[in-house]
Hints:
Number of helices: 6
Mean pLDDT: 91
Number of domains: 5
Distance between the termini: 41 Å
Structural class: alpha/beta
Radius of gyration: 28 Å
Shape: globular
Low-confidence stretches: none
Largest sheet: 5 strands, mixed
Strand content: 35-45%
Helix content: 10-25%
Number of strands: 24
Amino acid sequence: MLRYWIHLLQEKRLYCSTCNAITSHRILAREPFSIHAEIPPEIPLVCQCKICESFVIAFSHEIFFGTKNAKAEYAKLLSQNRLAPGDWVYVDGKQRPSLVDAVYKTQTEEIIDVEYDGQKEKLKRSILTQFNEKAPFGFRLLPAQVGETLLGDPIYHVLRKMIGVAIGSVFDKDVKKLVVQLENGKIVFITLPDEFQPLPDSILLRRLTERVQQRFPNLGNSIRLNVVHNVVYVYGSVSNLPDKEAIARFVKMQPNFRGVVDMLSVYCVGSPVSDEEISREAFRILENEKSPFFCNEVHVKENVLYINAYYFADAHLEKIKSDLHHILGLRDLKLELEEVPLPPPTMRKRAEILLATLKAKYTDCNFHVIPLSEGILVEGSVKNIWQKGAVNIFILQNSKGLKINTRLRVDA
């Protein structure tokens, strides 16, 4: 299984239950992502110990990569963090954080107006010259937030009055515990509350198997399921990409699971389909005159189709996505799409006229004419290099006064 996780995202020092120690771990993904941008949720990642090479599965929404999720709740500390209006600040001895209303300074101290339990209060501290930049967003407050704490989260243990970091989770006789390293080096195991304790894997697997068999009765023999630490592993092979995605989508909708590791593959009934055949069929779909995509960059590798394209703001993408998914032999589809503003109505009219002229003149070619804000783009395919030259000349002769770009392919 590990051979698919080849992209290194980061290295973290985490707790390894096999080594029973804090060791350096590689965080690996199946696709390239940047930790400096927000990684989509529910992406399965491998956390592999560099000492013993054992690994666990964690999901992108379970790991703190240094960027704050908009829905995440962190509290800053009066003694360590920069404060601004809208921040939550925790003061030792309080039951919960206070909301910062205003911050202003005198020559010797900083005064913070806060709201605590509906009451206005003032906090004071000496003007800080050094801040904890390792936790600029604040800390998870433990043990109260133990259930929401992510792997790598900076934490503040309210009872011990120490900062630290969440370095892992373990199961102790089916009881899940968060592993935390405090600033003094001590490792603490904190039991999660009952509402965050997972159901037994055997129960979840039995329920899931029954639901999948009911939903996909004709594919039951093609799918194998397993549940480990509330992570679903889906194995097997199906004959087309839509079935593969439908199964994965259905499994992800089921409650009480941390996430899904989709190991389903797509096989082609009959003769194998080459990358060239998939590419040719993709262009046939993309170059249809009604296609909403334009400026298409198409690449096929090992029956995986990669498309980078643009579309207008009013475009309907469901049909073309469905058509692409149903390409025979396709194992996976990766779309990188960018929305652009609508072109002016006058340019749309000019594009319609040019398309009609081209179709009347060259009946054996495919044309996709796209109106842009300052001109027209003509895409499509022709039979040979000589016809391509003739088409380009014809377009220029019939579009005087317009800025024209052509992206014509020779499709023998």
